[in-house]
Amino acid sequence: MCGIIGYIGERQACQVIVKGLKRLEYRGYDSAGIVTEENGALHIKKGAGKIDELAEKLGLLEMPGKRGIGHTRWATHGVPNDVNAHPQTDCSGKIALVHNGIIENYGEIKEELLKRGHVFKSDTDTEVIAHLIEDELKSSKSFEEAMRKALLKLKGSFALGIIYTEEPDRLYFVRNESPLVLGIGEGENFAASDVPAFLEYTNRAVFLDDGEYAVITKDSCVVKKLSTGEVIDKPVQEIGWTLEMAEKAGYEHFMLKEIYEQPRAIRDAIHGNAEVIENVAKEIAKYDKIFFVAMGTSYHAALVGKYLLQRLAKKVPIVEEASEFRYEMEELIDEDTLVIAITQSGETADTLAAMKLAKARGAKVLAIVNVIGSMATRIADLTLYTHAGPEIGVAATKTYTTQLTVLTMLAIALARTLGTADKEYLRQLEENLNRIPELVEKVLKHDGALRELAEELKEKRDFFYIGRSIGVPTALEGALKLKEISYIHAEGLSAGELKHGPLALLEEGVPVVAIAPSGKTFDKMLSNIEEAKARGAYIIALGDNESLKKVSDVIIEMPPMDELLTPIVYVVPLQILAYHLAVLRGNDPDKPRNLAKSVTVE
């Protein structure tokens, strides 16, 4: 996830763009850049670092020209450095563009362009787009035609801002599965990833849909279909948000916004790993001694990974908290060991220490990380990125579901490589994984009902979350979310453990949240729910089986899906419930007490 902005009008473009980038910095903050145009020449300044640092260091506020585009980056391809920062250009230096998204087929396109003599400067997927447009320009009647032909060859997600020196009166903006909105002014026009970038200047906006592009001048804005070039009549909407509200896209808190971003984040995780996952699977296929190391929410993702590898790849991993790994496992680690480290930030101290120990003992280390260029990526032998984008709320939401998505892809690829699961089943599972964003969107519609439920439960002191098999990590994560932001005591546990002690704590009205999808342990789970119900517990069940209605006080109806995919979807209503309980109890869910986003000390 990155932030882009463009401006054309009578103001000094760089001033508008820098202001806009500051308001988009929550979308990415590892590098930034601006290109402006004056008298047919492009002026480009970019580098690694945050906007304020670069504005002073590079003189971003002194660039000439009254049209330009800017970018603040959350790296997806290529480490954060000066060369990989946007804008990216073609060989001629006449085309410059900024990009938010992931191009899935950039590798094959780049290989073809290299054969045709194109010279690349960066490691980004974005630069491929500039060269592809340049290549199409040789056989096209206009720049717009060349741009359309080039973009129709891309697979993946993209929001683009494009500037071309030989058309001094216009800018181009394109949307496909990445957000883009136009700002309509008087004698000036804007485009950006989010409304706050231009809200200081205008509250009139046009929201582009997927497969649309806009040609903007200072006095006009024309929207067209990318597939045909046909003009589309788009309504202009008046935005009633304040700037602060707009940064959160109208949501009250970043956490809620990030919960709702999960369908997009999951799609990006799938797109971003489509080309690399098979190669990683082949690299790790020989290892039978496998450890997962992680902390907090990432540890719960590791537990899901364990079940996935067991079921699909017939591997039996050990999951260890990173804080304990180096004290207990050192003598078990050798060159025949694979360590899979999961860390959102890539800077978690305990996880980094575990990775370093594994490397020192000769083990192969695979990192599953959200932040490109973080320390974990530099220690690991192999890295898979979750592509969730920046997460402002301390409590992990979209970074967790994207970790689960990547782990599911890895397990499928590993099973295919090893031949440990039926090929047709793996194909169906992969297809169903691609539909998970749609299922998450359906589950998000429970928001209103979950808020009403939170009203009933806000005075409760204790919660229990129970699950079986692959549902246990979801129970653990649901309990953690509640503890983190609502400050209510909660326990997550295997439902099979109830009669071995925890039943003694159940009394009349105690909420028990049951993770109960259809699957191999459903009947056992139903019996466990009945055990809790018989002790007076208030049962809140998540599932898709009609028989849950007989034993539950509240049912959150979930869409049917393969049991192995349920952890990605079933955690979403638990995130929402925790969020509403926190708000109703007067807490700030974005900044829970005593906690930090990344734990960089042991």
UniProtKB/TrEMBL annotation:
Localisation per UniProt entry: Cytoplasm
UniProt entry keywords in alphabetical sequence: Aminotransferase, Cytoplasm, Glutamine amidotransferase, Repeat, Transferase
Positions of the catalytic residues: 2 (nucleophile), 597 (for fru-6p isomerization activity)
Any single biological process term in GO: protein N-linked glycosylation
GO MF annotations, alphabetized: carbohydrate derivative binding; glutamine-fructose-6-phosphate transaminase (isomerizing) activity
Pfam families cross-referenced by the UniProt entry: GATase_6 (PF13522), SIS (PF01380)
Signal peptide annotation: none
Transmembrane segments: none
Recorded catalytic activity of this chain's protein: D-fructose 6-phosphate + L-glutamine = D-glucosamine 6-phosphate + L-glutamate
Domain SIS: residue ranges: 280-420, 453-592
GO cellular component term, pick one: cytoplasm
InterPro entries registered for this protein in UniProt: GATase_2_dom (IPR017932), GFAT (IPR005855), GFAT_N (IPR047084), GlmS/AgaS_SIS (IPR035466), GlmS/FrlB_SIS (IPR035490), Ntn_hydrolases_N (IPR029055), SIS_dom (IPR001347), SIS_dom_sf (IPR046348)
EC number(s) per entry: 2.6.1.16
Domain Glutamine amidotransferase type-2, first and last residues per copy: 2-219
Major place of residence: cytoplasm
Recorded superkingdom: Archaea
NCBIfam families registered for this protein in UniProt: glmS (TIGR01135), PRK00331.1 (NF001484)
Annotated function: Catalyzes the first step in hexosamine metabolism, converting fructose-6P into glucosamine-6P using glutamine as a nitrogen source.
Oligomer and partners: Homodimer.
Stored PANTHER family: GLUCOSAMINE--FRUCTOSE-6-PHOSPHATE AMINOTRANSFERASE, ISOMERIZING, GLUTAMINE--FRUCTOSE-6-PHOSPHATE TRANSAMINASE (ISOMERIZING)
Name of the protein described by the UniProt record: Glutamine--fructose-6-phosphate aminotransferase [isomerizing]
Annotated source species: Thermococcus piezophilus
